Amino acid sequence: MSSKNLILRRIREALGDDPAQPDIPRDYRRGPAPADLDLLVERLVDYKAIVHRVSDISDAIRRIVGNGKVVLPPGVPVEWLPAEWLPAERSPAEGSPARFVRDDGLTPAEIAAADAVITAAAVAVAETGTIVLDAGEDQGRRILSLLPDLHICVLRPGQVVASVPEAVARLTPGRPLTWISGPSATSDIELNRVEGVHGPRNLHIVLVEEAAARS
Predict the structure, then answer these.
(1) Where in the numbering of this chain does the LUD domain appear (predicted)?
(2) Domain-by-domain residue ranges, the chain?
């Protein structure tokens, strides 16, 4: 018998057939503190993300997007879009300053051709400067947040938690999760930083101020 197996056998014998499972305390906070929001912004800026603290989502998107072509997950609300980009029937308009395309099964090439993607988030972690997407209707498939060069993520204060355990407690087990800490970047052995290798080179976080978040 190997030393490893001998050690494991002794552990099993010491524990018995049905070792008691200790209760794990999960006394996490259930809402953001003002310091959490400030810390999140600080971490995001450290990672070279651009943070917009706004009360008007559509105005922020207008300024960020410019004249680019944008892809949207199915559940992103049209209320986030500038009114002049939508016709009376409130659907994306041809020939408008920015052309919005809903992801209804777009090919990877079609997604990559977009200049930007707009998503929501499931939760954000202040301590690590991380936003988490769980493929909800307003976040879409993982590929949407990987191929376009610009990712715009709309985030509300109530989605911000202090720590990773708090974030995990809010997430639904089994859903596909994408954890994003700043724009995509990597470094070679000489520490030369290259951005955009594994995802968007540019990450803009639209952090909705409290008054607008309640509306």
Answers:
(1) 41-208
(2) 32-83+99-208
CA distance readout (Å), 99 to 4, 90, 96, 141, 174: 61, 13, 6, 20, 34
User: Considering the domain 32-83+99-208 in this protein, what is its CATH number?
Assistant: 3.40.50.10420
pLDDT above 80 (res 76)? yes
Kindly give the residue spans of alpha helices, DSSP state H, lying in 66-120: 108-112
Percent of residues, the chain, with pLDDT higher than 70: 83
Beta bridge partners of 133: 178
- Which residues have CB under 8 Å from 38's CB, separation 6+? none
Query: CA–CA separation, 127 vs 104, rounded Å?
Result: 35
> Measured in Å, how far apart are the chain's first and last C-alpha atoms?
67
Cα–Cα distance for residue pair 93/182, rounded to 1 Å:
31
DSSP string over 43-78: HHHHTT-EEEEES-HHHHHHHHHTT-EEEE-TT--G
Give 24's contacts (C-beta < 8 A, 6+ positions apart): none
Report strand pairing: 193-195 vs 185-187: antiparallel
pLDDT band at residue 121 under the 50/70/90 scheme: very high
What whole-number distance in Å separates Cα of residue 136 and Cα of residue 176? Answer: 9
Q: What is the pTM of this model?
A: 0.78
